[in-house]
């Protein structure tokens, strides 16, 4: 049996489509990290639960990070290097300590996830619900500030 040009084209085309779809899943791609870029980059992978019952639930953010030189976090527990703001509150930024995410004496590329839990509340005591968007950013030990990662809209319920 002879394989014609149309058959070969179809086989090659099918293999290309299969490889492209098998290797790219938007849910798995959060950061296109440059290992030579020393400025960290983050994204919010998930924000759960949504909707959130303010009396019983805490918001859990799963934050994906990438840093070309691995200097995220610090040994100084008084230093706050992750910052979180709520879209409903003007100029109210919470900051927290992050321990070193890689050995402090090495310059290595790091990538991973941080889990942050936040207790949310309704600002209007008469409201049955509110919507909030959470912004997150961090600084590395050299003072490089990363991009601001933004959560999806979170529905807060009484």
Walk me through this protein's architecture.
The protein has 158 residues and is mostly beta strands. Helix content is 12%, strand content 33%. The strands form three sheets. It has a four-stranded antiparallel beta sheet, with no helix packed on it. The protein has a three-stranded antiparallel beta sheet with strand order 1-3-6, with no helix packed on it. Strand 4 and strand 5 form a beta hairpin. The longest helix has 19 residues. It is elongated and about 50 Å long.
- Number of contiguous helices: 1
Strand content: 25-35%
What are the secondary-structure elements, in order, as H or E?
HEEEEEEEEEE
Distance between the termini: 71 Å
How many extended strands? 10
Strand order of the largest sheet: 5-4-8-9
Low-confidence stretches: 5-31
Largest sheet report: 4 strands, antiparallel
Question: What gross morphology would you assign?
Answer: elongated
Helix content: 10-25%
| Helical/strand content category | mainly beta
